[in-house]
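Q: Okay, next protein. This is PhoH family protein from Cryomorpha ignava. I've checked the sequence twice, so it should be correct. Can you predict the 3D structure?
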Amino acid sequence: MAKKALTEKKDVKAKKKVNQKKIVKPKKVTNPKIFVIDTSVILYDSNAIKNFEEHDVAIPIQVLEELDEFKKGNETVNFEARAFIRFVDSISKEKLISNWIPLNGNTTGKFKVVLHSQSTGINSERVFGDSKYDNKILNCAIQLQEDHKDKSVILVSKDICLRLKAKALNILAEDYETGKVKDVQTLHQGQVLMEGVDEKLIDTLYKTGIGDKNLLKLDKVSANQYFILQNKKKSVLARYNKAEDKLERVHDVEAFGIKGLNAEQNFALHALLDPSIKLVTIQGMAGTGKTLLAIAAAIEQRTAYRQIFVSRPVVPLSNKDLGYLPGDVKSKLDPYMQSLWDNLGFIKSQFQVTDKNHKRIETMVENEKIAISPLAYIRGRSLVRIFFIIDEAQNLTPHEVKTIISRAGDDTKIVLTGDIHQIDTPYLDSQSNGLTFVIDRVKDHAIAAHITLEKGERSELANIANEYL
């Protein structure tokens, strides 16, 4: 009997312990904030409201109205709008979203939808007019300031002009920082010029093709880091192979008639032709050969892949913009793809019309072994044994790039090319675009390589334009 009582006592203690473990105390917020989220942030990242930790998040009712206009379509912004609407619906079961509701139990802040402001103070609609939703969104932030004087109210928007108007009305405003690379100036370049290198290392690389990484005397060397090693008149190109923990000589290579015209292009071709490297990012201004090298390398390796996709985002993709162009959808989209066709045409021009390689490219296009189409048309396709080139990747969001790369199947290679300083999308910049994001995040992974092309090879005239104009 005593033994049974002792067992029951132990069970009660065990249950208490389990119950104690289940209790999650809310975080103590030392500097409470309310973040007011603009539509542009949600269209950039539908998971944005989950990224403000213990602070509260509010969205003006006008944001839901704007999202309703974006919910139909097959573009990324449409997917983001639908995802956010579904998320809000899931957390508001049997709850009123006009009241503060927890986002995730007690571990994060609360969420609500703010109705139209009845502010007794500054009214942005009286200042800027009532024709735009932006001004109603500003009024919601002002209302929250009046209702929650114990908290900092901060407007978060990808729209620079809206942030400036907010600051003019004494509202704290900032960009959405998640996924943003803070310092583009120190962004991984992919290659390093080293002078005064041990002469023995250069000689060894020439003789054996392999060298000791420790002779570089560097604190850290990234995976697939490329080097121009010099000692007076001697020089050699090399790459750090992280898997083997050694330096390997990089030889001059050629891809389907296209040769590297400088060290950077040789590095790019080396990475593009290496089957062990599954993700290649190439950044550089116009005329540095990014897309040309990628397409040439893909055709060179045509037997290793089931298909070659060459694509790019079509920035002005609204129905209105395309509607002004004559013809069917293909005719409307062809002008946006023309630069890709131009690069393919240049590769063909390296061979005589009667040459089998010239005919081979034409056959590949006819049989859709090479497919050039907008990125929206690639969505949903199976990416198994595909050499996938995405041009102008700087016009994609980090979330879009992640979605594309996560679709890669077995034996697929993905190449992202672009110029992070030439953004055509309104709410992206050199710090927040998808290309910058990938370069920064995968810089030390063995199956990823990055090259920054700085020397223009298009023409002397193009170089003058890039440098002086």
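A: Here is a summary of the prediction. Confidence is low (pLDDT under 50) at residues 316-325. The CA atoms of residues 423 and 429 lie 6 Å apart.
Q: Noted. On to the next one.
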